[in-house]
Specification:
Helix 9 (288-305) crosses helix 12 (393-400) and helix 10 crosses helix 12 (393-400). The chain has helices spanning 18-36, 67-78, 103-110, 126-132, 155-173, 214-229, 252-255, 264-267, 288-305, 340-350, 355-361, 393-400; strands at residues 6-13, 41-49, 52-60, 93-99, 139-146, 179-192, 195-208, 239-242, 258-259, 311-318, 327-331. The protein is built from 12 helices and 11 strands. A hairpin with an 8-residue loop joins strand 10 and strand 11.
Length: 402
């Protein structure tokens, strides 16, 4: 079957985007708790607006953390430390409203449905408890990998993330001295016979100070950001769009309220792969929205690295309180080199996808989450993330007879 030609667009946002500010605060709170109490249960939501941060949710932990201090440190690190930006790390209000996790949910997570009434199960070994850990909620999670890029991610979202990360780098270093924290990118890639061929369009929206012209903004960002990030061979007849609405002086939480979990496509595959709907940030790894999404990426990436297919999407589904996945699906988009039923057999043989085992095998009970709350959770070659490990690929390849 001939693979069709098409164009595809993905977007990203900078760490100063209001929704990403909220994500980083939620994950900052999670990291602070899990560092002191690895088994703490955290579901932390954040809302930000002009001069105000509200942190709320359900947290059950033996640890004490100073939430206002965490908030102020994160705002300062992002660059919101000037009263003219609408929110200042030193002077903004910080409100907290935190309850403990519902005992009904806690009971389902702590042990599977079959053992919830069995007091003896509470005395079993730690390994047994890990095996019986039930999912924190029902739902379906997707993982995706493809051969578009060296990090086995779709090219549009990889380039969009790198542009936004570069925007923040040149702002913080002073290389481009008129930038402020908020910003967005959008990249359109042309695919020929199913493979990325060129970048058709690049869009940047960059918050800036009042003392710079639109012409200077466009010229500087094309040279210092776009051409710095995107390989020259992809920039053939590329159209550049910078701050298409005109001026972008007011941004961040002053321009738009931010909420945790509103950038789930930015966090994952830029729309290339499907999404189950659950956000990641602020959730400890007992929540399968987070841990099973990481596991699904881990599975998909190892399968692609093994040469099983050029594109793979993995769906995992769970029921609250149950340890075994409700279902497992693999879609190879007609790029598979072995039958898809055999691919699922490989998944079952090489991966144990019970929540407790995922947490153990990926070592998820540690403070690694704030670092992925901006610029994507997947394909991060700048970070050492356990779900990006492909050490299972060789064994899978051998088992598949490839």
């Amino acid at each position: 079957m001939k693979k069709k030609d098409f164009i595809f667009t993905s977007e990203s946002v900078t760490e100063g985007h209001p929704d990403k500010v909220a994500d980083q605060i939620s994950d900052g709170v999670l990291d602070a708790i899990i560092e002191k109490d690895p088994k703490g249960r955290v579901a932390c939501e954040t809302a930000v607006t002009t001069g105000l941060v509200l942190v709320m949710g359900e947290i059950t932990t033996t640890a004490y953390v100073d939430i206002p201090k965490i908030v102020r440190n994160i705002l300062d690190k992002i660059g919101y430390n000037n009263s003219s930006y609408g929110i200042d790390s030193k002077t903004c209000g910080v409100l907290t409203s935190v309850d403990e996790q519902s005992p009904d949910i806690a009971g389902g997570v702590s042990m599977s449905v079959e053992n919830r009434e069995d007091e003896e199960a509470r005395l079993q070994s730690e390994e047994s408890e890990i095996e019986k850990l039930g999912a924190g909620d029902q739902g379906m999670m997707f993982g995706y990998a493809c051969v578009d890029t060296e990090v086995l991610m779709p090219m549009p979202i990889v380039l969009a993330h790198r542009l936004c990360k570069r925007l923040s780098e040149v702002r913080k270093s002073g290389e481009v001295d008129f930038l402020r924290p908020d910003g967005k990118s959008q990249v359109t890639v042309k695919y020929v016979e199913g493979k990325p061929k060129s970048v058709e369009r690049v869009l940047l929206a960059a918050q800036h100070n009042p003392n710079v012209t639109n012409k200077e903004i466009k010229e500087r960002l094309i040279e210092s950001v776009i051409k710095y990030v995107i390989p020259e061979e992809l920039l053939t007849n590329t159209e550049y769009f910078v701050n298409t609405s005109g001026r972008f002086e007011i941004g961040g939480p002053q321009a738009d309220a931010g909420l945790t979990g509103r950038k789930i496509i930015v966090d994952t595959y830029g729309g290339f792969g499907r999404h189950g709907g659950g956000a990641f940030s602020g959730k400890d790894p007992s929540k399968v929205d987070r841990s099973a999404s990481y596991a699904a990426r881990w599975v998909a990436k190892n399968l692609v690295k093994a040469g099983i297919a050029d594109r793979i999407e993995v769906q995992l589904a769970y029921a609250i309180g149950m340890a075994e996945p409700f279902s497992i699906m693999v879609n190879s988009f007609d790029t598979n080199r072995i039958d898809e039923d055999k691919i699922i057999d490989l998944v079952n043989r090489h991966f144990d996808l019970r929540p407790g085992i995922i947490i153990r095998d990926l070592d998820l009970r540690r403070p690694i989450y704030q670092q992925v709350a901006a610029y994507g959770h997947f394909g991060r070659d700048d970070l050492d993330l356990p779900w990006e490990d492909v050490s299972k690929a060789e064994a899978i390849k051998a088992d598949a007879g490839l």
